[in-house]
Structures are given as C-alpha cells and as structure tokens.
Write a structure and sequence with these properties.
It contains two helices and four strands, in the order H-E-E-H-E-E. By secondary structure, the chain is an alpha+beta fold. It is 18% helix and 27% strand.
Length: 71
C-alpha cells in the first residue's frame, strides 16, 4: 500500500505500487502470508524479497529488517 520514506524497504528499492510476490524464495499471496513469513525474523536480519512491479518487471531486493514503530 505504501512505503515509508527512508525506511528499510525504501532503502532497498521497494516503491509504492510494488507487490511482494515472494519472501526468501517462498511465494506470498496475502498480507497474512507476508506477516507469517517475517514473524520469526528479527530486526537486523536481511531477507530477499521478490517484487512484482506495475510495469511487469520482477526485481529481487535485499531488505535489512528494522524495528516496528511502537514496539
């Protein structure tokens, strides 16, 4: 839905409009699946995320996870 400016995703190259297709090589098809894929990861872990862009391209980026705001 959105990308926080200056956050880990933005720094890795994720842009507004990108869809997350896979995390660490495992396809994800919903927000719940994304949450489950990241649930056992810690701030500082790096994960590879395959994106699907509005133009049809499918880049893979490495995102270093940060701390969730308020946690």
């Amino acid at each position: 839905a959105s990308v926080t400016g200056g956050g880990p995703s933005a720094q890795a190259g994720v842009r507004p409009g990108d869809l997350i297709a896979a995390i660490a090589g495992r396809p994800v098809g919903s927000v719940d699946a994304v949450s489950l894929a990241l649930a056992n990861r810690k701030p500082g872990d790096t994960v590879r995320i395959e994106l699907r862009r509005p133009d049809g391209s499918t880049p893979t980026v490495s995102v270093k996870l940060g701390q969730l705001p308020g946690s």
